[in-house]
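Hi R.,

Here's the input for the adenosine-5'-diphosphate complex you asked about:
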Amino acid sequence: MGSLGPLGCAKALQLTLAVIKPDAVAHPLIMKALHQKILEHKFIIVKSKDLVWQRQDSERFYAEHEGRFFYQRLVEFMASGPMRAYILAREDAISYWRKLMGPTKVYRARYTSPNTIRAQFGLTDTRNTTHGSDSVESAQREITFFFPEFHAQEWMERLEPSFRA
Ligand code: ADP
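And here is the predicted structure with adenosine-5'-diphosphate in place:
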């Protein structure tokens, strides 16, 4: 039998970017609950940092939404206070974190997926507690956006071969 890693199975680890948005960072108990959830679900915290965006950072990150009715509200909110960004690793990290997040719209989340983060802690459709990358390409781009010094390839090369993607 091959060696088992931190997840107890020899599956490849995937990286994702998870962000705790300013509405949640403002509440220490919510932050504690979210950190606990990350650990409970067996994510490896590869890196984390607290940061505050300038409005230009917010505009750059959400450029794809420019022109939509919620865009101004969104970019202002995301630059309104501290955030915490994580690089998380896990088997199927991208879809797993998205599932824990729940639907974008908080009221939909409360009806359809009451155990999700957005259902439990989200305030409005904009102030919805968390962000998670939605594809391998966006995870790579977003990890670089938040952690330009991080080299995913080097990190993967230091893992045991059975955990590499
Ligand atoms: P997600 O964050 O679930 O991937 P999107 O990429 O579509 O969703 O949207 C980015 C962010 O823009 C959302 O997390 C939310 O903060 C905001 N947003 C999206 N749709 C709406 C909406 N209809 N009303 C208000 N804010 C919205």
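One thing worth noting: The chain has nine helices and four strands.

Cheers,
M.
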